[in-house]
Amino acid sequence: MPLSEHEQRLLEQIERALVDDDPKFASSVRTGDRRQKARRKLQLGGLLVLVGLAVLVGGAVAESVPLGVLGFLVAFGGAALGVLHYRSATGAVVEPAGGPTGSRGSSAAGRGNRSRQGRPPMKNRLEERFRRRYDQ
């Protein structure tokens, strides 16, 4: 979801303040694209799965149990690497476990809306809290 103009301006202000306060940290954060690094790790995970499966099959053909176990571990490690970096590599949104179709989700949302009447949205409260901390 794209940011609104107000949110983009706030983000730019935060970035400028970060660069002013700690330029070394800001440059280290800016040096790489997280999504690109996550894509590389996702690709590496896929490659490891293929290599692991090849070693696993090679171990089965050679009737070598340690080689088969090694192949399985390499494939499992590659799959784990891919799963861990899939979300950040693709920008996929993962639904929470008790999603809106669950019985608890709909009743909790109803209660939450009634109890929050009169309160400003969380985004506004967080922005105000940030302003107070930054002004100190």
From TrEMBL:
Region described as Disordered: spans on this chain: 93-136
Biased composition (Basic and acidic residues): 124-136
InterPro entries assigned: DUF3040
Pfam families: DUF3040
UniProt key word Transcription regulation: no
Keyword Cell membrane set for record: no
Alphabetic keyword roster: Membrane, Transmembrane, Transmembrane helix
Listed transmembrane segments: 44-61, 67-86
Biased composition (Low complexity): 103-112
Signal peptide boundaries: none
This protein's name: DUF3040 family protein
Organism of origin: Blastococcus xanthinilyticus
Lineage: Bacteria, Bacillati, Actinomycetota, Actinomycetes, Geodermatophilales
